[in-house]
Design a protein that fits this description.
By secondary structure, the protein is an alpha+beta fold. It is about 25% helix and about 20% strand. Strand 4 and strand 5 form a beta hairpin. Bound molecules: flavin mononucleotide. Flavin mononucleotide binds near residues 72 and 102.
Length: about 280
C-alpha cells in the first residue's frame, strides 16, 4: 500500500491524487452575475446535494493554484448572492469544457461556449436553456477553507426553484437516468457517461433487513469462489431459506459454489440458496 503524507507533496500532486480517486463527481454548470449584471458561466465538479428539506446544494471554486487568485464565480457570488446550478449531459459536455477556459471577467461564457440564456423567475442569474435541469438558488453562506492556492471556498446554496426538461422524464414523471444522460468528472481529462452498460440496479427495499454477512453459514462465508458481492446478495434475505426436496445428484463444495455464483450473476439468489444449503 502506497502511503502519502499530504504535507510532503506539492499542491499539484495532491490535486491529482484527490481528484483522480474521488470519482465520479457530478458537474455543476454555475451561472452568476456581478453587481453590474454581467453574467458568468463555469463548471465545478466539487459539487453535490447535502440536504432535502431545506434543499441544499454545495460547490467549491478553489483559489487558482498558480497565483492564489479567486475565480470569477466566487467574486460574483460575493457581490450577488444568487446562482443557477445546471446539470451537464453528453450533449453539452464539450461546450461546458470550453466554458471552463480562463476567460477574463468581462467576457461572457454564455457567448463563448454557445449557450442560450433564459430569464430565471426568482433570481438575477440566467438559466441555461441547453441544460436538462436548472436549479435557481440563493447563496446562504460562503466559507473560505484556507488562504492558499488550491484552497476551496465552500458555497452553500438553497434551491428556490427547479426547472426540468420534460424530455428526461419517464411515464411516471420521474427522472430517467438514461434520458438524463448525465456526464461525470473523473481524474485528469477523463469523463464518465451514463448508458445501459455503465448503470445497474441494486434492489434494497427499506422495509427489508438482511441477515448480514456475519450470519451466513461458515461453509459459505469461507468460500474461495463466492466474492464479497456474492455474499452480500446472499445475506440480503431476511432469513436462511429451508431446503426444498430435490432429487438432483449431490455436488462437491466447489461445484456448488461455482453454480451458486452463476445463479447469483443471473439474479437468481433464491435458486443459489437452494444449491448452497
Ligand atoms: C468539468 C470541470 C469541472 C471543474 N470543477 C472545478 C471545481 O470544482 N472547482 C474549481 O475551482 N474549478 C473547477 N474547474 C475549473 C473551472 O471551471 C475554471 O477554473 C474556470 O475558468 C473558472 O471560471 P471563473 O473564473 O469564470 O469562475 C472545473 C473545470 C471543468 C471542465
Amino acid at each position: 500500500m502506497k502511503e502519502i503524507d499530504v504535507n510532503s507533496i506539492s499542491t499539484k500532486e495532491l490535486y491529482q491524487y484527490l481528484t483522480s480517486s474521488i470519482t465520479p463527481r457530478p458537474i455543476a454548470l454555475v451561472s452568476t452575475v456581478d453587481k453590474e449584471g454581467n453574467s458568468n458561466l463555469s463548471p465545478f465538479s466539487f459539487f453535490n446535494v447535502f440536504s432535502i428539506k431545506p434543499p441544499i446544494l454545495i460547490f467549491s471554486p478553489v483559489n487558482r493554484v498558480r497565483d492564489n487568485t479567486r475565480k470569477d464565480t466566487l467574486n460574483n457570488i460575493t457581490q450577488v448572492k444568487e446562482c443557477v446550478i445546471a446539470l451537464v449531459n453528453q450533449n453539452i459536455a464539450q461546450q461546458v469544457s470550453l466554458a471552463s477556459s480562463g476567460y477574463s471577467a468581462d467576457e461572457d461564457e454564455f457567448k463563448k461556449a454557445g449557450f442560450s440564456k433564459i430569464k430565471a423567475t426568482c433570481i438575477q442569474p440566467y438559466l441555461i436553456k441547453e441544460s436538462p435541469v436548472n436549479f435557481e438558488c440563493r447563496v446562504n453562506t460562503i466559507t473560505e477553507l484556507g488562504d492558499h492556492g488550491g484552497s476551496g471556498n465552500l458555497i452553500i446554496c438553497e434551491v428556490l426553484k427547479i426547472h426540468i426538461n420534460g424530455n428526461i422524464l419517464d411515464e411516471q414523471g420521474n427522472i430517467d437516468p438514461l434520458k438524463l444522460d448525465i456526464v461525470s468528472r473523473l481524474g485528469s481529462n477523463w469523463y464518465g457517461k451514463t448508458n445501459e452498460n455503465s448503470i445497474y440496479k441494486i434492489i434494497k427495499p427499506i422495509s427489508r433487513i438482511g441477515i448480514g454477512i456475519d450470519n451466513l453459514p461458515k461453509d459459505i462465508l469461507t468460500s474461495n469462489i463466492l466474492s464479497g458481492s456474492d455474499l452480500a446478495i446472499l445475506a440480503s434475505i431476511e432469513s436462511i431459506p429451508n431446503k426444498k426436496n430435490d432429487n438432483t445428484i449431490p455436488l462437491k463444495r466447489e461445484e456448488k459454489h461455482t453454480l451458486a455464483k452463476k445463479l447469483i450473476a443471473k439474479g437468481k439468489a433464491m435458486e443459489a440458496w437452494q444449491i448452497l444449503i
